[in-house]
Amino acid sequence: MSFSDEDNDDPEELQKDLDEYFEKRRISVEDRLEKQRLEEERLQAQKRATREKRKRFFYLPRKLFFALIILLAITFAAG
Fold this sequence. Notes:
mainly alpha
């Protein structure tokens, strides 16, 4: 596809070439937007998974810590 003076003889051909060019550009932009959206979704899922792992990792120690505090409080109250 060339936009030189020789191609300007047929306006319909020029319009067809322009339409093809812009259609390819539109598809290219849509592809990039789709890839960007998928990457953002992947990052969000990764953050969510990390957050869930962190919650699970700290849940048991936190529970044990509070149980220990309660036992110490009961021990000191009874003793």
